[in-house]
Amino acid sequence: MSDTPTLRPVCIIGNGLIGGSLMRDLAAHGERVFGYTHSGAGARKAAADGFDVSTDLPGVLRRAEEVGALIVIAVPFDVVAEVLDAIAAHAPTCGITDVVSVKRPVHDLVAQRGMLERYVGGHPMAGTEASGWAASQEGLFVGAAWVVTYDYAAEVERVPAAWADLFREVCTMAALVGAESVPVSAVKHDEAVARVSHLPHVIAESLSIVGDRGRTLAQSLAAGSFKGATRVAGTQPSLVRNMCETNAEPLVGVLDEFIEVLQDARDSLAAEHPSMEHLAEAGHRAHVRMSARSGARRESVSPVAISSRPVMRVHPGGPGWVQQLQQIESLGGRVEVF
User: Fold this and answer.
1) Cβ neighbours of residue 255 under 8 Å, at least 6 residues apart?
2) CA dist., res. 156 & res. 160, Å (int)
3) 108: burial class by Cβ within 10 Å (0-12, 13-18, 19+)?
4) CA distance 248 to 250
5) pTM for the full predicted model
6) Could you read off the pLDDT of 168-193 as tens digits, one per residue?
7) Where does residue 14 fall: left (phi above 0), alpha (psi -120 to 50 degrees), or beta otherwise?
């Protein structure tokens, strides 16, 4: 633990699995962190664990404004608009980031409120099927990709120094908790997570339903492959709905691709000479490629690590730095800031 904080104070709005784990990690590194949760029980549990959490949102945000905190929005998407309105009212100058699993819809809500100059989007690709403060843990983000969006910088003619500093700070926060920052535009992020995060939820829910239709015998025979493939179906349904419904357009596109692959497999198996050759071999090759790109990663709802990806050091605000971010994104690499 460092005796000198690396970041300005951090105010986390929402202290469930992701927000709570971030709070634990930052506190463990000696950072000044406090937050809000709507759950009285969650606040009491956090306080019992020694953390500074309140159920008074306006009060927490006024405190954030007083100390010039970095605000992290860690609530489900359907609450984001309400939180942004509260930030506008009670913390009108604080920098903002988030950990929501979709980025374009959040970007649009921020833009509607004229707050893009103080917003840098984020999304740590880590988690479990559990939720709430009780599920939070230290070390959740170690080795994980932490998406950091740069749409605002790509859209304006001249990036304000304050926004560049905010970008640097979000990347620094991710690094403090062991994650690796990945610069990504909001639209490309949403299409990618539709493939590797949201589609798996659709598949897991569907597979659970089909397996359950086998009744007691199927349940008694279900082993590792079934349990692994359906693990994320244990996620709270409201969280699954938030992820998938808010990213519906990209998800429908990749779902169509998936259905086409299944239909081809079905047709091959229904032929006079049933065959799984094409699907098995193509799937194995794809798995090997994905594994080589991502490297090893612990069990996670969104297991995307980038330890084997290229790394580029960037000075936010320096000459050509936005173009560097675009280059890193095209390589699927990570960024280190200085």
Assistant:
1) 199, 202
2) 9
3) exposed
4) 6
5) 0.85
6) 999 999 999 999 999 999 999 999 99
7) left
